[in-house]
Amino acid sequence: MGEILLRDRFLGCVRLLAATCHALGETAIERGNHLVNIITACGNCHSPRNAEGRIIADKALSGGLTFDTPAFVATAPNITPDRETGIGSWSDAEIKRSLVEGVRPDHGRPPGTQLAAMMPANFYKALLPDDLAAVVAYLRSIKPVRNEVAVPVHKLPIHRDAYPEAEAGFSQAMMTNPVQHGAYLAAIGHCMECHFAFSRGVSDFRTGLGKGGRAFPLREGVPDSPTSVAANITSHPTAGIGGWSDAEIARAIQKGFDATAAPCSRRWPSASTRGSGKAA
Length: 280
What we know:
This protein is an alpha+beta fold and 280 residues long. It has one domain. Helix content is 30%, strand content 10%. It has helices at 8-17, 28-39, 43-46, 92-101, 121-124, 129-141, 164-168, 178-188, 246-255, 270-273; strands at residues 66-68, 72-75, 153-154, 196-199, 202-209, 215-217, 227-229. The strands form three sheets. It has a three-stranded antiparallel sheet with strand order 1-2-3, with no helix packed on it. A two-stranded antiparallel ribbon has the order 4-5. Strands 6-7 form a two-stranded antiparallel sheet. Strand 4 (196-199) and strand 5 form a beta hairpin. Helix 2 packs across helix 6. The relative contact order is 0.18.
């Protein structure tokens, strides 16, 4: 069992890096800022990048990566408050529903449709009510950027595998337990969107949790580019991170370097969105 579960120490490190800012009297917008830009790493997909792969700061969250897969072709949409090309005309309830159910409002583009499977709504379902409201408050507060992205093209039905911990739900009372708090942050940070095993084409969240193995092209739109593979982050002493120190785990999350000081894959969002030691 120890080989298929995230080690408690890993989750504890996640929690340590994500100090409880509620105790510091932060506003909803401040908390939303930490959640959007650090924990959930929204900019990793929703922000355009320059030729060096760095986020273009003045266009942050205005639409980003394009995913061309056998099931769909979709560009991460504009989630700034621009009323015409972003989500400025969406109500708070509509934004919340898109986050936790993956559904556009009836006046969205295209109207009333599911968001592409790359949107981790099955993980965001875990968001506590106050955190969900904070994300909405932050998205309302940022600069609107006019940037119209292409309407997605779906070739197959959209499917998301239920994430067990998000389905079970979390409570505010659970946040006093370091492991439960870490599990919550790992859920809304959708770590297991990549670090899990497949079984017959289905996400194996029960017996493959943390085993890694999901492969990605290093650069979108470059079919012959090298692939990166999500690492094993279970407690296995050699295949996983069981031999890493707390400091090494923290460095990987925070700075994007593994236990040997080698850089993690460019797919890992730490360098661009999780580099701050202060998190939500």
